[in-house]
Every structure is written in C-alpha cells, then in structure tokens.
Amino acid sequence: MEGFNEQVVKRVNKPINLFIKIISIFLLIAAPIVFSYLAVALKFAYLFYVGLFVFIIGIYVVWYIITSQRVEYEYSVSGDELDVSKIISLRKRKCICKVPIREIEKLEKGAKSVEAMRFSKRFEAARDIDEKSENYYAVYNSAAFGRCLLIFTPNEQILQGMKKHLNKDIVLKLFYNRNAG
Fold first, then answer.
1. Hey, is 41 helix, strand or coil?
2. Fewer CB atoms inside 10 Å of the end CB: C or N, the chain?
3. CA 16 to mean position of chain CA atoms
C-alpha cells in the first residue's frame, strides 16, 4: 500500500479580513439605529419592529461573515497525487486542485524562477501568500487548464511523500542542493 501524508495549514489573516469584520459589525449596529430614526421621523411605529428584525437576522449574517474569515488548506499526498483542499471555518470543504506528482516540471522554494513564466491557471494555497521565502512553487501541466502554478507551504513530511514520485532532477535540486541539468 502506498503511503499517505496529510498536513493542515491555517491561512494568516490580513488587514482586509479585520476591515471586513469591523464593517460588518458597524452595519449590524447601524441598521436598528437607522430604522429607529426613520420610525420617529416618519411616525411609522412598525419600523421599530423592522429594525429589531433586521438586527436579529444581522447577528447571524455577521457571525457567518466573521467565521468565514477562518481558512485552512489541507495538503494530502496519496500515492502519486497531491490533493489540495480549502476548508472554510470547518464547515465547508472545496477541492482546489489535484496534482499528479509525476507531472510536476518545477518545484522550488521562492518565486524567482517562476516570476517570468506565464500560466493559464494559478492556485494559491499558502499559509501567507506574501511570505515568498517559505512558499513552494510547483509548475505542472493539467489536462483541463494547461500549464498551472501551485503556491503552497508544505512541511517536510509532505515533501518526503512527494519525493519518490518527483522527477529525478527536481529531487536532486530540492533535497540534495545540487543543480541537475
């Protein structure tokens, strides 16, 4: 039986995630206040109840928005295939891509060698996409999309699981620090 390796990586929250949380809480608080002022100004008492209803529904919506900001990526190596999934707040799982490890043309740490290349599809599943020094960049050909780029942050266990299925030149360069070819 082939080996199975798995890793879960939690995405780093960015300032935009905090901004989304603050705006959603602000709108939750502002909605009943606006309806209250409208009820007084227009002399429609039912607008108080509408504001209360919007506030109660808004609590659920804000909770959903805030918890949706928690994203994790799961990498699993099973046989000669790397599966990358996105897990949103432990309630929704979406398969990002399935990479046949034998199809990987280039696997390197750092973005220097892939910056000039063009890709038809780019998959981002890294812990921190801005931290280029810890991310690995895998270039591979997909039957559905053509030449693709996968940006991910694997640990040593995932890399060792991929090692026996990778191209010999990639293994020499990545694991033994030799420039092959």
1. helix
2. N
3. 14
| Nearest in space to 119 (alpha carbons), one of 134, 99, 94, 138 | 138
Rounded Cα distance, 23 and 28, in Å: 9
Looking at the DSSP bridge assignments, the partners of residue 76 are 6, 83
Q: What are the helix (H) ranges across 1-155?
A: 15-42, 46-67
CA distance 164 to 102: 9
Cα-Cα-Cα-Cα dihedral sign, residues 168, 173, 175, 176: positive
Q: Which residues contact 157 (CB under 8 A, 6 or more apart)?
A: 5, 7
pLDDT per position as a tens digit, 98-148: 999 999 999 988 777 788 889 899 999 999 988 878 899 999 988 888 899
